[in-house]
Specification:
Layout (H helix, E strand, L loop, with lengths): L2 H12 L34 E5 L8 H16 L3 E4 L5 H11 L4 E6 L1 H13 L7 E6 L5 H5 L6 H10 L2 E13 L4 E6 L2 E5 H11 L6 H15 L3 E7 L2 E14 L21 E7 L3 H13 L9 E5 L1 E6 L5 E4 L2 E20 L7
Parallel strand pairs: 1-2, 1-3, 3-4
Antiparallel strand pairs: 5-6, 5-14, 7-9, 7-13, 8-9, 8-12, 9-10, 10-11, 12-14, 13-14
Helix pairs in contact: 2-6, 3-4, 7-8
Length: 356
């Protein structure tokens, strides 16, 4: 059923404020795998649009860049509402409340973390199938943008959104232990990982971003390698034990890139219904430094000791001090963790050709 037909059904069943108006009650919950019909609209301007802006993205440059781009955005999409985040996790609430109020398209003006919050807010509320998403890349890392072959410049991104081409993409769900020691669940669009990546994202998020995403993450990675000690972990993919022992990194990848351009999962596809699992065992510091260029290039899967699997479910159990878990560039908690794929959970506008 198309989105407009759903909204007419909601209006008939719950009472609408008027023809074409938003429903007065919350839409029914949708399964994470439901999605929009490709024939919902024929032009980009046909949907009610909410823009979620994270002014802290891109080292604080996002506000200025977005304000310059807003007239062009309205030329492409027509009139749209703009909401600014002011605190961590704000984008979750803004997106969820917007869709419940009748928004049909959410444009994320920010980075991977902002997109991850929007995805979490929608999927946790069962609303992933009632909205389409678009990305205006204003963040530091730009890793999801790379996977989706989205233009890096705002004019190119707006042109891609205007073309209105929709792609059904997978998402991921993570159950983990948060910083307060409580069980928590979150969602991701790109990559969730554990180990040294959690420390790296912590260091990068604390540091100024004046050097840009790629260099900021490289410096954070080098600092992490200098101090990180591999933690013992049991790692299972679809129930099969694939590693037990010291582990530097394990990534459950929907997309290919993380860490400001590292192609950690070069064979991952965000539309194949599977997670690519890439794990690096307890390599020493010198070995990690030697292999780092291959990780950036995506040529590390044939390095002896590196593990690569595909599966729908990944489970990681600590065998000692639990390492950090990061989700789309945000260090949110620790092991134990369970990562699972949600096939075709999202509809994204403006993607380029996904690499085969």
């Amino acid at each position: 059923m198309g989105l407009r037909a759903r909204r007419e059904l909601w209006a008939r069943s719950s009472g609408s404020t008027g023809p074409g108006g938003p429903p007065t009650s919350t839409p029914p919950r949708a399964s994470a795998g439901s999605r929009l019909s490709a024939s919902v609209v024929s032009r980009a301007v046909a949907l009610r649009t909410l823009v979620v802006v994270n002014p802290a993205s891109g080292g604080g440059a996002a506000r200025r860049r977005f304000e310059r781009a807003l007239p062009r955005l309205r030329d492409v999409l027509g009139e749209c509402d703009v909401a600014w985040t002011g605190a961590p996790r704000d984008a979750e609430r803004i997106a969820r409340e917007g869709v419940r109020a009748g928004v049909e398209r959410v444009v994320v003006a920010g980075g991977d973390g902002t997109m991850s919050e929007v995805v979490s807010g929608l999927l946790a509320a069962g609303l992933g199938g009632y909205v389409e998403l678009a990305l205006l890349p204003l963040g530091t890392g730009g890793d999801l943008r790379r996977t989706l072959a989205l233009p890096a410049d705002l004019d190119g991104a707006l042109a891609a959104i205007a073309r209105g081409e929709r792609t059904a993409l997978d998402a991921g769900r993570v159950a983990y232990v948060d910083r307060a020691g409580r069980d928590a669940v979150s969602y991701f669009a790109n990559i969730a990982s554990l180990g040294i990546s959690g420390l790296t994202t912590e260091l990068v998020n604390r540091a100024p971003k004046a050097l840009g995403g790629r260099l900021s993450f490289l410096i954070g990675t080098l600092r992490s390698i200098a101090s990180y000690r591999a933690a013992p972990v049991a790692l299972r993919v679809d129930g099969d034990l694939v590693h037990e022992g010291p582990l530097v990194l394990a990534a459950a990848a929907n997309g290919r890139f993380f860490g400001g351009g590292m192609e950690v999962a070069p064979r991952a596809r965000p539309d194949d219904g599977l997670l690519d699992v890439v794990a690096i065992p307890g390599f020493g510091k010198l070995r990690l430094l030697a292999e780092l260029p291959r990780i950036y290039r995506g040529s590390h899967l044939d390095v002896p000791g590196v593990i690569w699997r595909r599966g729908a479910l990944v489970e990681a159990e600590p065998l000692g001090e639990p390492p950090w878990v990061e989700i789309d560039g945000e260090p949110l908690g620790r092991l134990p963790a369970r990562f699972e794929v949600l096939p075709k959970a999202l509809t994204v506008v403006g993607c380029g050709a996904l690499a085969r």
